[in-house]
Task: structure prediction
Amino acid sequence: MCGIVGGIIKGDIGSLLIDSLELLEYRGYDSAGITLMTDQSELNTIKTTGKINLLKQKYLQSNTKSGSIGIAHTRWATHGSPHETNAHPICSDDIISMVHNGIIENANELKESLSEQYTFMSETDSEVIAHLFRANIDQYKDPVLALRHTSLKLDGSYATAILSRNHPHKLFFSNFHSPLVIAITDHGHYIASDHLALLHLSNQFIYLKPHQHGYITLNSIHIFGQDGRPINPKIEVVNIVPPTIKRKPSEHFMLKEIYEQPNVIKQQIEQHTTHWNPLIEEQLHHIKHILIIGCGSSYNAGLTARYWIEACSQVSVQVEIASELRYRQAYHKTDTLIITLSQSGETADTISAFASLKKSNPQLTSICITNNNHSTLTRMSDFTIITPAGPEVGVASTKAHLSALFCLYQLAAKLNHAQAGQDTLDDPTQLHINLKQTLALHGNIKQCALQISQYNHVLFIGRHLCYPTVIEASLKLKEVSYIHAEAYAGGELKHGPLALIDANVVTIALLAKDHLYDKMISNINEIIARNGPVFIYTNTHTDPFENNALVNTIRIPSCQNDLLPFIAAVALQLLAYETALARGCHIDQPRNLAKCVTVE
Ligand code: F6R
Result:
């Protein structure tokens, strides 16, 4: 989703900002822009649709490359098409230049009151911020007060970075429910929506909290709360090596990240006893209910966890889509543990759902499982479990998803141990080896993908633990290959989806050697009887469909059934990847999607 970088330094900042912007590319965007303030306090803005290298070319060709203060942005269109006029920075004449992440929900209302005085040039909701800030500076004569009054008028979510030509040595910012971080360096200060954009420049960061606003200068940082009082910021030293988010030119990030999974899981297996906060384990003794909240793949991980937890404890599990829970009036028992799942830790739907849940149930304990230690959800939660997946660049979540799934598996095992003194879930200590064996099937899976890529409709089916696993597989396939895919529990076929089956709809069945094996075989027979082609992914050795021309069987490594969701996830990620490759799709940045979904 949109990305912000900005800064005020000794020397020219333009190319540094564009470099940092490139580090935010993974979030997904459709246009980009930069404003530099010259020594004469002029605001020079360059914008382009498409990729950052186009912005770079335009910048290098321009006559106005100098300036030690600047702001830059990648835009993921919400209000208004991905057109250059709608790209940020957005200006109020040549007085104000501003970049914005988020959505201003009362933009129309504000626009009405501002349009007598100012001409709106774009279709964006963001433009109101530029004009409103300018109007408030005129009214209050003090830019910080103007910024505060601007923030107070905005409904929705925002992170902003703003330049005002009448205040040439300051870079203003404000935020509410959209992340913003300040980096301190020996040559000046930077601001960005993600520390990943600045890790190569600094390891000292201030993570802004909601409703904070202020400005940075070359030598100072000024942060104010909603009430206007100055805030003494906490500087955090982040000791992580700037991640290699580069890949071999021939490789997609998605493939690189799929292949990193055995190592991520190995690390988690090794850290099993050392890495967990004992206070989390203490919580597990008392809870009776678990409420899991997430979106997309994170929600799907929660669905899988429900089967594990229910199988090994007396704890009831509710799994909710954050964007739905947020607007429901659900009742939650006092001994409920909330688990939020979010690889980015910045998903607006999950944050809002969790915030309103906390407001109405302040006594409930919460754990956040995330791949981002410095995220909003981490700060909001009582406890955090960090997935050691490392930065994930491909928009389709693979290693971060699998790592979160493994955290949930460990949590279920710990719950089992804490409440029943037992270890009934299957031992996962060899899982990383099984995952490597799964990757070795890449060639076979590719052959299967070449056939799947010919279809326009794919139906996934599974039962028990295989059901949430195919829900995730179907999301992955549609996301990267743009093939229409749906997932159903095997038992649901006859309640509707069987009507779809004919030679043009291919079914992918995940078949486990479990207590529902025979029932799944019947479901597959129901499809074959209607002339539907079927690809079976299975950890069994028997093949009841051996000579059936409609059926292809892909044997995934044999494993215990509790661990099948991991093995199958990797095999089906490879299937999605190879299918998308065969169809020539933009695998790492699928159309219309963003990595970090910071708007509701
Ligand atoms: C799918 C995918 C998305 C995310 C969803 C939630 O591959 O990546 O469905 O899972 O947008 O994101 P997080 O986990 O960051 O809250």
Observations:
- Residues 281 and 414 are 7 Å apart (CA to CA).
- The longest helix spans residues 399-420.
